Amino acid sequence: MVRVKYRLQGRRTMEAADTAEENPELLYDVPISGTVYGAALNYRGAYDALAPEMHERPYSAPPKAPVLFIKPVNTHIGHRVFIPLPEGIRSVTIGASLGIVIGRTAMRVHAKEALDYVDGYTIVNDVSIPHESVYRPAYKEKARDGFCPIGPFVVDRSEVADPNDLDIRVYINDVMRQENNTSNLVRSVEQLIMDVTEFMTLHEGDVLLAGSPEMMPQAGSGDVVKIDIEGIGRLTNEVRDENEISGGEGR
User: Fold this and answer.
1) Whether domain 2-54+62-241 has CATH 3.90.850.10
2) Distance (Å, rounded) from C-alpha 209 to C-alpha 42?
3) DSSP character for 82?
4) Is the distance from CB of 225 to CB of 83 less than 8 angstroms?
5) In this structure, are residues 119 and 101 in contact, taking their beta carbons and an 8 Å threshold?
6) Torsion angle, CA of 228/170/20/36, rounded to 10 degrees?
7) 228/189 Cα distance (integer angstroms)
8) What is the pLDDT along the chain (251 residues), one digit of tens a residue?
9) Are 207 and 162 spatial neighbours (Cβ–Cβ below 8 Å)?
10) Is the peptide bond before 62 cis (omega within 30 degrees of 0)?
């Protein structure tokens, strides 16, 4: 089995995506090197669904800053690597997200200059065990081994005309289960970068997730998950019982 690490620049992304699908012997490395930061409730539908609860205790008001979480390095896997389904869990939630790859140190960045700090874009699957609460860190549900597929590659920012107008589709066993567009972000890509770097520094290689749309589908053992993002490509992974996976990898 051949392993590759992909960085795409200066060619049409869907041609590369088709090549990735047509070469089943390739196992892709994770194409990023930094920390992955997720932003919760950054799609209008997901935000609106929880809006009434935001005025209840313990917070009694909507969040004023991005609601962030981390997908640590143990969660990172590449294109076509198996997603482990934990023992005793029937399905996992699929969180399709645009991954914003940072190209240089970003601190207190203004929205008008935000895209100058972006190296490129990738596809990220924010996998989690189904859970309801967003008011506490869901480490047990979101930070398990293999719960963050990334790839297949990083597309140079110059190849993406507008990151705030990209179609996102999720297919499970080739049936479309979710469709949305980044035009529905609460905070645009530029606004998100500005708001996050107001209080923390992002470094080269870090990835900021734009968020996952509402109505996230679930996948169980044996299901093949494909995430398409317009202009970026397709990320494909199969869910397998964790006891069936040797070393967390496989095809």
Assistant:
1) yes
2) 10
3) P
4) yes
5) yes
6) 80
7) 18
8) 444 445 554 444 445 555 566 566 677 899 999 999 999 889 988 767 765 665 566 666 666 778 899 999 999 999 999 999 999 999 999 999 999 999 999 999 999 999 999 999 999 999 999 976 655 566 789 999 999 999 999 999 999 999 999 999 999 999 999 999 999 999 999 999 999 999 999 999 999 999 999 999 999 999 999 999 999 999 999 999 999 886 544 44
9) no
10) no
CB 39 within 8 A of CB 68: yes
Residue whose structure tokens are 């996230």:
216
Q: How far apart (Å, rounded) are the C-alpha atoms in residues 181 and 210? A: 11
Query: Is the distance from CB of 180 to CB of 43 less than 8 angstroms?
Result: yes
What pTM was computed for the model?
Answer: 0.87
| SS3 at position 53 | helix
Q: Helix (H, G, I), strand (E, B), or coil: what is residue 117?
A: helix
Q: How many CB atoms lie within 10 A of CB 93?
A: 19
Length of the chain: 251
The CA distance from 138 to 136, in Å, is: 6
What is the Cα–Cα distance from 34 to 23, expressed in whole angstroms? 27
Phi (first) and psi of residue 97, to 5 degrees: -145, 145
Locate the domains of the chain by residue range.
Answer: 2-54+62-241
* 7, 8, 86, 207, 247 from 33: Cα distances, Å: 12, 15, 26, 9, 20
Give the angle 136-137-138 at the CA atoms, nearest 5°. Answer: 105
